[in-house]
Amino acid sequence: MSRKQLGFTLIELMIVVAIIGILAAVAIPAYSDYIKKSKVAEANQLFSGAKTELGTFYADAGHFPAAGSTNVKNGWDSVTSVVSSGSYVLALTYEGPLDDGAGASVTALLDAVGTDDASNTIQWVYAKHDNGPPFWSCYKGYSAVTKTGLEDKYLPKSCRIARTDPGA
Fold it and tell me: Which domains does the chain have, with CATH numbers?
């Protein structure tokens, strides 16, 4: 008379546990990176709205608004439709026009993307580069005024791509 098998053997259970462990070792870091990318994507989305409003202000007034100004007509306070925080963005801050008056700077402070304040920010700068026309940039290391502490893999694609100045 043959004996019927009623369950799993110890070897079969050990193989299943090993497979689950291997999958978890790959999936958890990938999921963590995905979450960080989504936080940066939200910052990029909020900046997109601010960029439009700043461009409209510049087209109407001929200059960028003053940062923290009490003059609502010509200051940042007049740009009321900009959403400055989100689920992962603690603050979208306008630093004001650059020294030459032809550019501007906006910084986003993200919630827990890195380990310190420098790695939790991404900055966009509207400025001329190499005597070309001005454009918004967030290229890591592209300009002395552009700063971000984020790793390249978390940055939006337009910030990661090393490209030459469009005005050159």
Answer: 11-160 (3.30.700.10)
